[in-house]
Amino acid sequence: MIRRICQRHGVPIRRVDRLGILAGIPGIAGHVDVPDPDNPALGGGDSNHTDPGLFFPWDRFLALVGNAEDPSGDASPLSTLNGDTPVQFGPFGAHFGGGFRRFWEERGGLAIFGFPLTEESQENGVTVQYFERARFEHRPDIGKAEDYHVVLGRVGAELLKTREELQRLLQARNEAQAQELEHVAALLARLIEGLRDVGSRLQAIVTTGERLLKGLEQEKEAA
Fold first, then answer.
1. Per-residue DSSP letters for 78-108?
2. pLDDT tens across 26-57, in order?
3. What pTM was estimated for this model as a whole?
4. pLDDT by residue (tens digit) across 62-99?
5. Which of 66, 80, 188, 223 has a CA-to-CA distance to 35 between 20 and 30 Å?
6. Cβ-based neighbour number of residue 208 at 10 Å
7. In the Cβ-directed half-sphere of 52, how many Cα atoms lie within 13 Å?
8. What is the helix, strand, coil percentage profile of the chain, to 5?
9. 80 in Cβ contact with 16 (< 8 Å)
10. CA 29 to CA 41: how far, in whole Å?
């Protein structure tokens, strides 16, 4: 019956788990694999069921469903595709595959690293990929073979260094602005003093002019 349902709807006879469902990969899943709609990091739907259980014989079940012709029952996360095949996964539209994907699956998955944020890219000659809580680096020079030569970037240390550098730059800018303000204030003070001096001299000229004018008026009246 299950084989006929799969054939009718074009569903591959293969195991998909919670991560596969989140990635939109078709296949056969247990209730435990259905993502919790309120917390996709959990399985079992909104009631967090665990059936069919840890010891359910998926290999045997899939072999029977496929009539022993296609026993493709790999129960590892996202196992519906070869581990080297990049798959689009998560709400950010990013793909991941190869050693990064296998490391992600085997070292904590969604709960530890979160969803992939970016595609793979090159930084200073190193292949990297950013996740919500980590940066994966492909480092054959220092990475262990059992970790697929993947090491975690020192994101926290780099962020702290960047923040300290930013604080230093902000402090330098504030100090420069304070010095500039002091310089401008000194210039204004000298300008005001100069204007006061000019004002005093103009006042003296006005006073002298008024005395001369008064003297001329008096001489005119006497004549």
1. TTTS-TTS-EE-STT--EE-HHHHHHHHHTT
2. 889 999 889 988 888 888 888 888 888 877 88
3. 0.48
4. 888 876 444 443 433 344 444 466 888 888 889 988 89
5. 66
6. 10
7. 10
8. 50, 15, 35
9. yes
10. 16
